[in-house]
Design a protein that fits this description.
Layout: H1 11-92, H2 99-109, E1 115-123, E2 129-137, H3 140-152, E3 156-166, E4 172-180, H4 184-192
Length: 193
Amino acid sequence: MNPINISLLPLDYKREKQLNRKFRISTIAMFIIVGVLVFTYLILQILSTVPKAELKVLQSESNTYDTEINSLMKYNDLADRIQNVYTYAKIATDDQPDWLGLFIAISETVPEGMQINEVSTSITDNGTTSISINGIAKNHEMTALWVQDLKQKEEFTDANIEFSHTLSTGTTEFGLNLVYNKDIIFDLFEEVE
């Protein structure tokens, strides 16, 4: 025969004991859930601080770049003004050579003992300014050397001897043709840009 378990404890006591046991289990479960939630919150806070710090660094860099850009804007304005002056100067002087610069370039290279009798200008078919110089030199070699010196000057794109012949006095009469470099005025503006 099997033994029979008979409880002598009252029924209310059993129910109270079961309720206490359920309460303790539910309390432990609640503590575990709250612990998991707190732990999750802490992990999320830690993980969110990294992007926040990176965002602050990026905002700081952005502010620095904005400050640098704003400080350089005056140079942009200056470049725009230079471009406007360049455009106006090109329009105003498109057909006019720098006469003073041309005569200085010619006079700096004239050899000693050479005499210039006539200087005239004309506009060629392609719109460039041509300068004709007639004069007298001691010999043909002096004229050829002078043409070589003029070809080295940036004011002229070309320099050629039109004619050169010996006179009865033993001197050489010559004629030169120089082509003006009209872009030289604008080289300075382009260098500044």
